[in-house]
Amino acid sequence: MDKDLRNKIIELFEYRELPKLIAYGGQPWDSKFYEDLIQLQYDIYKLDHELETNWNVDMSIIEARWQEIHKDLSVLGVSSDYYDKYSNHIYKYQKHELGIRDGKLPTRLSMEYFYFYKSCDVKLLRRLIYDRNAALAKVIKPSEWRTFDLVTEVNDDVVDLQEDTTTINGNRFLISLLQFGKKKTVQIFNDFLDEMDVRNRALDVKSIEGVEFIEWTDTQIRETKELVVSQAALVDGLDLGIYERFLGVEIKV
To answer: pTM here?
Structure first.
């Protein structure tokens, strides 16, 4: 496995608090389980790579990537009868990515709908962790991670602005900047984050050991709002030609 990609995966796991979930309740650290999750995320990234680097996607390669993902699920204890159930959200997001080729841009979807499915990989990883430790659901229900996931996925798009200008990526922040310009995009994203702030404060959940859940999400909301403004200001200096060619949208920045 590529060392840089492995480090990126570990960084993702830590950012989304997955190691703390694995260890919750004094569970002994299971290195094999952790490495199996890394392998699953690696194969999901390989699938993403095919979608982000090829305008004309070879579906036989995509199918081969899915075979690897399903093999990873098997290693993690998922029966073949449940592969589709566990993979459903990733299938949906793949459809969104492929839809870009037909001019179906992410901006046609609501912010919540789009980012709900964009967090598909993290939700899958967390589901596998919850499967192993039923006590987690008594502290924070899987559905109560929704606001956290939406905020962190928005953060990923905003942080990855420069990186994603070189790929065929469904970066909604970048596409919105191209379609609507800086002022409107900043308003759209920060209005959404304000809504997440209201929802987050209304949550009545306990904290998991080492994770002050509501406070941590609050920090991410504030930091992401600042990034939305600073990253939008930098877009003028980026080479956006690949997006102009592939998406056919008028650059308004």
So the answer is: 0.90
